[in-house]
């Protein structure tokens, strides 16, 4: 469920509809299936997907230490905010990407975002340095290259439990 204040409702609704539009078009064995949007059973809208009882991939590895790390790490697709918390494991043990709030549809107006993901997974070129006005703001947007960087960090975490102290 998405929680927000009444004054943020217009922006949240726009972003929610955008995420639904992206997620519903994605069909792949490693993308968590989108079932629908429910906005009439609770005070806040909810994006519906199958329940993944194993949780995210880091929890799965902790509870299944002999699981194939290769299958879990390399079974993913490029996302936009790729991190262990956005890769859940389904009932068959297959990793599935979820949370498409920062995803982009390339070459389609209205389907881009200024958000750049989660700080510990950001490529160095996306980090903001105070007082550095030499970098154009457009250069600080996610790209395929920055997604590959985040994927590499995910692989390190899945394969060798390498986690910087700031990761949860």
TrEMBL record:
GO molecular function per UniProt: ATP binding; protein serine/threonine kinase activity
Name of the protein in its database record: Kinase-like domain-containing protein
Superkingdom field: Eukaryota
Keywords: ATP-binding, Kinase, Nucleotide-binding, Transferase
Pfam families recorded: Pkinase (PF00069)
Keyword ATP-binding included in the entry's annotation: yes
Organism (species): Mycena rosella (Pink bonnet)
Sequence ranges assigned to domain Protein kinase in this UniProt record: 1-168
